[in-house]
Amino acid sequence: MEKRIEAAYQSAPKTWIWKLLLAFLVAGLMAWSSSTVTFTTAGSGLEVAGNILSGIFHPDTKLLFNFTTSGVAYLLLETLCIAFLGTIVGAVISVPFSFLSATNLVPRPIALLGRFAIAAIRTVPAFIYGLMFIRVTGPGPFAGLLTMSLCSIGMVSKMFIESIEDLDKRILESLDAAGCTTFQKIRYGILPQLFPDFMSTLIYRFDMNLRDATVLGLVGAGGIGAPLIFAMSSYRWNEVGAILLGLILLVLVIEAISSRIRAKLTRG
Description:
Elements: H1 2-11, H2 16-34, H3 43-57, H4 61-64, H5 72-101, H6 108-123, H7 126-137, H8 141-165, H9 169-177, H10 182-216, H11 225-233, H12 237-267
């Protein structure tokens, strides 16, 4: 037995030479790439980073606890509403898209057409949609809502389709054999299977929309992004710290709530 193992080991192809050559090739490419790197004085960058950290630890309390339309609380609420309503509207539109794109429910040509439309929607970044809708509706939260809704359709529809195609048809067949109506099959056979996956997808998309809504504010699509970039451009680091602190607290609260909801959905 030992002789056979030794013979097999000796007859095995010697690949260490090729591995060594590949390692030298990778090292050479990395060295060649690093030759184009230029180093500049990082004093100003470190100073800006220090000012941002100082602003976070010494936020502008007047802005942080200002409950008018220019305060952090109102801007965070606006951002939250844009993300939440964008997720809901996108989910409502995604449901028929998903059922029309599931190959186990509709003919394949129709499903491929629906998947092509979903892929086309997912291709365009949210930033571009934001700029387009601002041209149509003007700057404001409504442009952000439309952007979040359209961006949600692409991802949510894709996840919904996967859940629909994973349906256990044996449950539907058993309900059909029991003489259940179409409504009863949907109520007791389809919805219980799809509801946990659908809700988990929506919660995950809402987390993404909350962060995207902040970025969309930079182009004027509502939310807290515009005041943040204005404060940074004016070097008002205390205001930057107040806005970032509010964003951090909001994301932490939403993350804690969504984690509990996901855990309940997982346990049933």
